[in-house]
Amino acid sequence: ENPSPQAEAGDVSYWTPGSAFCIFYGSSQPYSAVNHIGKVVRGLDIFFGIEDGDRIILRRGEP
Hints:
Layout: E1 11-15, E2 20-23, E3 35-39
Antiparallel strand pairs: 1-2, 1-3
């Protein structure tokens, strides 16, 4: 892949050093480079209400 040190709101990324799946939804930036694997294009505001331990389901939208 092509790791990037920056992210935009909506980026769905994989952080290799921490084996973590990340969804960027605010102004935060990755601790280190991440591999972008997708993008949330609608409903991003719902992430502001998610708390630690909550489960979410992401579905692939129509192109």
